[in-house]
Write a structure and sequence with these properties.
The complex is a heterodimer of chains A (114) and B (114).
Chain A lengths: L2 E3 L4 E5 L4 E3 L2 E3 L4 E8 L5 E7 L5 E3 L5 E5 L4 E6 L8 E9 L7 E2 L3 E6 L1
Parallel strand pairs in A: 2-12
Antiparallel strand pairs in A: 1-4, 3-9, 5-6, 5-10, 7-8, 8-9, 10-11, 10-12
Chain B lengths: L4 E3 L2 E4 L5 E6 L6 E7 L6 E7 L2 E5 L6 E5 L5 E5 L8 E8 L9 E2 L3 E5 L1
Parallel strand pairs in B: 2-11
Antiparallel strand pairs in B: 1-3, 3-8, 4-5, 4-9, 5-6, 7-8, 9-10, 9-11
Classes of the chains: A mainly beta (114), B mainly beta (114).
Chain lengths: 114, 114
Amino acid sequence: AQSVTQLDSQVPVFEEAPVELRCNYSSSVSVYLFWYVQYPNQGLQLLLKYLSGSTLVESINGFEAEFNKSQTSFHLRKPSVHISDTAEYFCAVSAMDSSYKLIFGSGTRLLVRP
Amino acid sequence: DAGVTQSPTHLIKTRGQQVTLRCSPISGHKSVSWYQQVLGQGPQFIFQYYEKEERGRGNFPDRFSARQFPNYSSELNVNALLLGDSALYLCASSSWTGSNTEAFFGQGTRLTVV
């Protein structure tokens, strides 16, 4: 079985400051890793994913995440946030042998202040 | 192209009633998954259907059932509603199963049980 832990329920940050949203996972098998973003009253949008290869993955809007197998982590970072980045961020995993099923963390609310 | 569409967007039901939620996947996608997102938590996997067959089931009681139609749209049924069934129900579609591909989420159906 897999589990995902997002220790920070809310992260307040000022505009243009850097941010890191933490994600740790547990699994007895190899996994794929994801970050999804959810804006108010909307569904989930895929932000970025790690399937294989380079452990550093980037999104088109400046976010990046690094897969660290030894620490079982997949932290999300952005060097400079905007007001529009205010949203709920979910880390998720799926086991490679049952990749249809996403296991989500409890989410981190990123609150960007002017 | 239209994204994943879900209907209705909101509904209110009374305890003990039954409810049917609907999902139309992205054109060409044959896989539909359902997730339950209780307020303040991450989504939890309920079902996955591919080519009209159930391919995966989460840890939900038998009151929850689903089906997929020849056009790949899907319905989620919940019988004998409980207050704890109040949640955002998300549908996700993807192009195929067997290996990980991106899941596209709809905006969800907000179910309130009173």
